[in-house]
Design a protein that fits this description.
Radius of gyration: 32 Å
Largest sheet: 6 strands, antiparallel, barrel
Helix content: 10-25%
Strand order of the largest sheet: 4-5-6-12-8-7
Structural class: alpha+beta
Order of helices and strands: EEEEHEEEEEEEEEHEEHEEEEEEEEHHEE
Number of domains: 3
Length: about 375
């Protein structure tokens, strides 16, 4: 049985009412007070991506069957004085993998970092494997870390002669603290006596508020260069300790501002609405049309000794139900998305239909915010 629900009609009338009393503004706090460190990053203090290609051994017959693993095994044995033809190596206990990691800022040689190991070939599982020493390189081709150690798999797999079962992904694993940093990356975050703060979400108002909070505490040393950057001069008292100055800035609190947005994911029916989205004066009518399609089969059996054949004939029953008693919801000006969702829930509008309502509101110019479709 199939059930198809669609929006029969959405009527949106935008109007300007001069005599309608204004409703009070949205009383709730749209954005809370937030630490500066949670909304900005310091320019120059960044992570770096490392990558390498290695060999995982010790697998229980779940490794690669291709020539790439055999060639790598041959190359490794040659480094230890044993020369073998890759065609003579027959093993399913090894797998070629990629090894990646994020090199945190301000790490020093000798420190450890986590690595992620992923199968490259047709290995069925990396469970129980051990990564052999693998150099990790940056985009400039230099080696910054070396990884090695046993893998931790976030799942399991089991198989028998007639069936198999597995949970989660068994071709990807981690090695906690599996890489040793060989050389660090120089971080120059306080060059020329200034520090640049980069906003994670660029916004003119938020940048100005961050600069204003810094100036209120330290004097006129900060200004918003653009919506994504706040330039701050080091005070003379912090000239020799920029890290202490950054720490004092990070713990300051500001109220960030964001653009009014409604994000809609049509594939999953997910709707995320910002609290500062406003809706103009509208009237919304919603009605449902439900169509049910039932599939069946009728069997025609011939009489005995008639030399006929049994025939199966498909049968389809279609029934429709139209909800003519659709309710009309009127929303006055300065209404919020919270008012809209409350009204829509009252008339039985689900998330899927609400997506169509929001799209119609945007086309009518009554949705005062950006509608982002994913």
């Amino acid at each position: 049985m199939k059930k198809i629900s669609c929006l029969k009609k959405i009527v949106i009338c935008a109007a300007i009412l001069l005599c309608v009393p204004a409703l009070p503004a949205f009383a709730g706090v749209v954005q809370p007070m937030t630490r500066v460190k949670d909304i900005v990053t310091v320019e120059g203090a960044r992570e770096n991506q490392l990558i390498g290609m290695g060999l995982v051994v010790g697998l229980q017959g779940t490794g690669d069957k291709g020539n790439m693993a055999m060639q790598m095994m041959s190359n490794m044995t040659e480094q230890f004085g044993v020369t073998m033809d890759p065609k003579q190596i027959k093993s399913k206990n090894a797998a070629v993998v990629t090894v990646t990691c994020q090199l945190s800022p301000f790490v020093s040689p000798g420190q450890n970092t986590d690595v992620l190991v992923s199968a490259m070939g047709d290995a069925k599982s990396l469970e129980g494997g051990v990564l052999l020493q693998t150099p990790l390189k940056a985009a400039n081709g230099k080696v910054y870390a070396v990884a090695q150690g046993p893998l931790t798999i976030g799942g399991w797999s089991a198989s028998g002669a007639a069936s198999s079962a597995k949970k989660n992904v068994v071709t990807v694993g981690r090695i906690p603290n599996g890489a040793i940093v060989e050389q660090g990356v120089e971080m120059n975050y306080a060059g020329n006596g200034a520090i640049n703060l980069l906003l994670r979400n660029s916004d003119f108002t938020t940048a100005q508020r961050v600069a204003g909070a810094i100036n209120q505490k330290f004097g006129a040393i900060a200004h918003a260069s653009d919506p994504g950057r706040v330039s701050v001069k080091l005070p003379p008292s912090y000239a020799n300790s920029p890290a202490a100055f950054v720490a004092s800035i990070e713990n300051m609190t500001v109220r960030p501002d964001t653009v009014a947005k409604v994000v809609v994911n049509e594939r999953t029916g997910t709707i995320v609405m910002g609290g500062n989205v406003k809706i103009g004066n509208v009237s919304v009518a919603h009605g449902n049309l439900t169509v049910k399609v039932s599939e069946g089969a009728a069997v025609s059996q011939p009489a005995p000794l008639s030399q006929g054949r049994t025939v199966v004939t498909p049968q389809t029953d279609i029934a429709s139900n139209s909800d003519e008693g659709a309710q009309l919801v009127e929303l006055p000006a300065t209404s919020t998305v919270q008012d809209l969702t409350t009204a829509m829930n009252a008339v039985g509008v689900g998330p899927r239909d609400l997506i169509a309502v929001l799209q119609a509101l945007d086309e009518a110019g009554a949705l005062h915010g950006a509608l982002v479709m994913q």
